Amino acid sequence: MRTLLSGLVLGLAASACVTSPNLPTTQAKQTPKPAESIGQSDWNLLDGTDLSPIQPNPVGCDTGATPVRAGVVPAVGVNPTERKLKAHKPTAVRWELVRGYSGPILLRGRQLDGPAAVYFSPLENSPTDNSSAARADGEPLKSIETSHGSMRLYAGMRLSAVGGARSWWTYVYTDRPGCFFWQQNGRDYGGLLTFQVTP
User: Fold this and answer.
1) Does residue 122 contact residue 63 with C-beta atoms inside 8 Å?
2) What is the pTM of this model?
């Protein structure tokens, strides 16, 4: 299988994303409508990429901002914040397109020094910030109960960066604290972003 992890960047973010999952549920007034120009063959290539291997003794869990070559970064507005999430709490994250990338983006993740998974879920409706809808990758792996009802969790999300789309909201969830990473793969690039999950 062709692997697109040739350009792993250990820390892909300019700003980040810890917000309450209680987001507005009104539909965006000018939601971009991405053209259906990303073929199944593109997604098949990304599906063939592997997650970065577990690091038995990571040097640390760097949550500082680093340069970004392509793809998306977790962001809320323009103010950078520490990338810290809480275990067992779905966290709403806005993924913002950078550097004019166009094409498919497969977003996944897991614990940096262990086997724990990072789960994703799409928001019910995009907030009013011109966001585009993210699509779940594959079948749900599990469900959790929240104050808003049952939430289905997936191993990854598909972001279609075409047709004027420039941001996507998802939920992110982990079962335990520790050092984790988000991994994104796109056309001819790949990257990692580490983040910390607290109890």
Assistant:
1) no
2) 0.74
